[in-house]
Amino acid sequence: MASEPLALDIEKEPSGPLFLAIADAITRDIMRGRLKPGARLPGTRALARALGVHRNTVDAAYQELMTQGWLHAEPARGTFVAEDLPESMAEPVSVSVPREPATVRPHLAFSDGAPDPRLVPDKALARAFRRALLSPAFRGGADYGDARGTPVLRHALSSYLASDRGVVADPARLLITRGSQMALFLAARAAVKPGQAIAVEEPGYPLAWEAFRAAGASVRGIPVDAGGLSVAALEAAIESDPRIAAVYVTPHHQYPTTVTMGAARRLKLLDTVERHGITLIEDDYDHEYRFEGRPVLPLAARAPAGLPLIYVGSLSKLLSPGIRLGYAMAPEPLLTRMAAARAAIDRQGDAPLEAALADLIRDGDLGRHARKARRIYRARRDVLASALSAHLGGRIFFDRPAGGLALWLHCENVSADAWAERAGVAGLALLPGTHFALDRAAPQALRLGYAALDEGQIARAVDILARSLPD
Amino acid sequence: MASEPLALDIEKEPSGPLFLAIADAITRDIMRGRLKPGARLPGTRALARALGVHRNTVDAAYQELMTQGWLHAEPARGTFVAEDLPESMAEPVSVSVPREPATVRPHLAFSDGAPDPRLVPDKALARAFRRALLSPAFRGGADYGDARGTPVLRHALSSYLASDRGVVADPARLLITRGSQMALFLAARAAVKPGQAIAVEEPGYPLAWEAFRAAGASVRGIPVDAGGLSVAALEAAIESDPRIAAVYVTPHHQYPTTVTMGAARRLKLLDTVERHGITLIEDDYDHEYRFEGRPVLPLAARAPAGLPLIYVGSLSKLLSPGIRLGYAMAPEPLLTRMAAARAAIDRQGDAPLEAALADLIRDGDLGRHARKARRIYRARRDVLASALSAHLGGRIFFDRPAGGLALWLHCENVSADAWAERAGVAGLALLPGTHFALDRAAPQALRLGYAALDEGQIARAVDILARSLPD
Q1: Residue among A117, A150, A182 minimizing CB distance to B346
Q2: What average pLDDT does range A227-235 have in this prediction?
Q3: A to B CB pairs, distance under 8 Å
Q4: A82: three-class secondary structure by DSSP
Q5: Domains of chain B, with CATH numbers?
Q6: Which residues pair with A109 in a beta bridge?
Q7: Which residues on B lie below 8 Å from A214 (Cβ)?
Q8: What CA–CA distances, in Å, run from B44 to B52, B57, B60, B70, B79?
Q9: Cβ–Cβ contacts within 10 Å for residue B123, how many?
Q10: pLDDT at residue number B17
Q11: How confident is the model over A81-100, as pLDDT tens digits?
């Protein structure tokens, strides 16, 4: 049972905390295969002596790796490399040592448009969560049981939507969910009978299609052009296919192309939906991230009263993908059906998280965070756009997105798949158009979700992008 | 816009904090209708002056009531009684002022078996949550995306189940869910095709039936006797109804009757399930709460390898209904199907909560809490059993439950519904047998979930119970 000696290759002058450099060295050894799943690590005392560091430093490194799932401890037996390594093993972006040693290839990823969790107002959130847990309301179990979510958050969200987006949302018509994914699933359950279809944008958001299919609906792609969903094509589809009972749109920043649906087309869409009596599902997933021009209000802010419109939003894009909080606004009886289905699959909301986020909204922390994040992401967008023009101008084209956390890169004369493959080998993960295709041919394009990369990472990523452009 | 003067009837010598006494007085005025929804409250300064207390005290009372959803603040306008009063309005158990003024009737409730959220190790939980939010793993977004849940919690849970229950659960076969409700929904989605049926205990757990129906399955009741689910009746049902594809059981403490399934019947159940090739869904919802005799290991601890058994558990019963964390263990490919459905309806788990609970398990806080809670609940059970015998002996009978958070009270010669109605008028909420009935006649019985009531509250509740016994 004696463990192997562990000769770690730790950076001599790590740019971050020493414990992270140790954690990073161990992670590298696991990735290289020098430390196998199940292998036992030396005790913290022994390793500290071997490395000439304080035992607490080694302990912090082990704790960090346990939190990340690389190691696990067995009481009275020791610390072992996890048998079941985290999914992120292939993408160790989480090891936050900014300078990589020469032996390890830089590993970067353009996401599908995730925010930067490093910006999360974590101290304010931790404080708010603590307040929520220690509050008499939580200890008294007061919020047990409303499938629509904690009243206090529905009230706070109602004010937020009214002041920020012109959406008048009666708290009684709001449903808090676990991220917008659940809101989309519940919307489809409430709006569509099994066997019916939902018209969706193509290219579009595959996770929404999964939610709709899980709810028993089929999905039918409607083409997207430079103005967003083609309402003429939608109209034709509805007339030819009586199964279409709803349409799903991302008018603010179309996913994945980032285009904004213009005012005239918005009115035409509302009119089409109303005439055909179908449900409109509006996903306003990153409303806060508008950098240019006047804010575009959601369809929900100007839809005629009585239109069956389900408005879906998320706080995950605003904070971190790890904060699971979405919401939906819908008229009765759609909301009642959604709440009933939510109770059946999830009983009730998450009282402490909901109370904590209500606090952040009420105290203004969320608004402050949104302003700060908007400033940072806007700068990152500009860095990305400049670097792309400088390195790839002429070979590719793109519109600098007016908002959102991603840029849509057209590359008509290049295979986006081949490009993504070559970039992957060079250490940069990319999402080509095939990722967003339903039935039609995939666009030769890449979605570059840049927000989680800092400016140095963006520069390196564009460098790899340029070097791996297929001939 | 001037607000009405507010003449509050505050207890002169409140037994709790003064701010809670003020909050309580305001709540009473709302409930009495003296303060209407939408009414404006005086400013904190004015009210503090009127009451002769410090302004912070009034502020704390308002904050408390906003957290509970009774009031809401509008920036620059003032504080108002919520238009949309919390569901708990009819049951202000959350207002934790122990001594009620004579004008207000004591309001108590026997639950369906919820734990006491006042016992939650909230400080340890707040600390663990803070650590999780501030950890590099969370800020790095490392845990994004595994639909089975955070690896570190699956590892911690695996050790916990092995040491505590003899259940050998490979972390790769564990799925973390939002409470056991979602685990039950996903179990039915994975095990049963739409149109097929799940055999369930009757009387039984209506929320499980809702989850199964939401997954497209019908439910078929199998009678329960003093030894739990009748396996002979199950066998007959399977033979007569080929739609039955799964059976749902609560063998440890049958819900709602609290009886434990004996060893011989357990073996017979496993044998029946195996011979007919149906899936076994075992809900071990309150394993930790065994007061008497040797611990009874779950079916999952002794099921033959390869049996399609889905084992479902929850940390909500151990901590608080407000902490939404359940889990399921299942063999491949059931687990893969469950994880895929979970991704479609909820994308991913709750990284901070999962990391925080992994911490509580690893540090031993969860085990310490379980031991403490077990001691307290056992004492409460004894107080309840003694009070029932003293006040109602001869009219009713019950077995002192060996475990669990509820007691099943038989009252064959009394209408349980009439009893519940009379007790309700006197201020005690009760759950009669009708609440747990599917197709068969409801048992004349009451489920007394006592765990959330302290000993004084139990005494008062039994007093009301005795006084409202129908003739």
Answers
A1: A182
A2: 97
A3: 267
A4: coil
A5: 18-104 (1.10.10.10), 122-365 (3.40.640.10), 367-467 (3.90.1150.10)
A6: A429
A7: 341, 344-345
A8: 12, 9, 10, 16, 9
A9: 12
A10: 63
A11: 877 664 433 333 333 333 33
